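To close the section, here is one more complete example, presented without commentary so you can practise reading it yourself. The ligand is GDP-alpha-D-glucose.
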Amino acid sequence: MVRRELTVVANRLPVRRKGDEWISSPGGLVTALKPVLKDSGSWVGWSGDSEHYEPFIHDGISVIPVHLDQRDLDEHYAGFSNATLWPLYHHAVREPVFDAQWWDRHVDVNRRMAEAAASTAPKDSLVWVHDYHLQLVPSELRRLRPDLRIGFFLHIPFPPHELFQRLPRRRELIDGLLGSDVVGFQTDGDADNFRRAAHAAGRSGPTDLVATDGRIVVVDAFPISIDVAASQDLAEDPATHARAARIRADLGNPDVVFLGVDRLDYTKGIDVRLEAFGQLLESGALGRSDVVFVQIAVPSRETVEDYREARERVEQLVGQLNGTYGRIGHPVVHYVHRELPFDVLVSMYQMGDVMVVTPFADGMNLVAKEFVVSRDNDEGVLVLSEFAGAASELDDVAILVNPYDPEAMTSALARAATLSLEDRVARMSRARTTVVANDVHDWSAGFLNRLKGETTLRELK
Ligand code: GDG
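Output:
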């Protein structure tokens, strides 16, 4: 009999330290799992700083901090997770670094996370492990606690076989993941890529995978979504509208506002969208319209060299575009390099005309979905990369673009800015229906139901 208690294992805890207090970290994952975890759940992860903390209860959830020292952060976090796996899994848009010295710490952090989960999870309960930092946790946890039902969800893409093959430790990662009962991905394409990688490692059956010890491991797509109610509540608040109008007025009430909202990450294609915007201005395609681009870029992983370079490139482009096309008091690009409160973000979504989401690779992209449900009217337009997971759900409502094709990017921006009102409304209302139909609570319930399900050999016997 499977028990319902849930232990989550993720790189970060659902709380962070502010002064002497723990405060909730915002984010869809926390919102989605809070109702499930309340009163009987635990969350294992890193606090985000270098202090040692004892386990504690926050908001009804048992929080189990795992300490990471500087070497863990250098070799496991900045190294293997973010300089090897992140670029490799994002279609190698930056050259992945393979440094053999990082591996031991990566294994060690995964082992400590698994041990922390093993010592807290009740007998026969559920454990849900998240994301690329922790792919070795499922097998280690199964070794320690064979009674548990173990799920894993990858938030980022799983790479095509030929890319995955480059990874010196690929077999260990496949075996790590196959310690799970359910391995979840954002899209069918990611799940297929994983099946193929496991097959190539000699571990697979035709559809579901058979692990070496004879267990059946369910491999499937579980497209993540957003907390629809949270975005809608803010969207309906008159204060959000008033702020949106103020921001638009501060911009000088331009004819068209393009908007980008991203972590400042080289996978997000911020540079190519700014280049396309520059081309659009250069081409004169929008005539004498007053057009601006607002780019919110949240600081991210600044200890990793490729991220520092990505920031330099974006800031160089912002300067170049304003220098070339701006007038005194009227920049064409408004650039914010800091995190904004979520209610301000929703106002941004409301005041923008064209949301530009152009990653080279992205597991899902929640910004696209937040934009869709934050509109008070259905007049916005979404320009969306074909390489975002969200494109598999929003392909018939967004203007899809290939971020590797500069001309297509420029014409997509022009088309979005000139789409008829009728077309805009038709697309956005269908997009809203799609996003509302699968929100983050549906996503977590869908995954956990599969995890509790009757699908493993253990239960078929
Ligand atoms: C990974 C995968 C997958 C952004 N700026 C601000 C802010 N945000 C919030 C957004 C959104 C979140 O950050 C970004 O989520 P994304 O999905 O767009 O991208 P990643 O951070 O790369 O997330 C991705 C996701 O995991 C979930 O599985 O979709 O593919 O890469 O929610 O609202 N929030 C606030 N201020 C900001 O300035 N408060």
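Once you have examined the tokens, check your reading against these statements. The radius of gyration is 23 Å. The chain has 18 helices and 17 strands.
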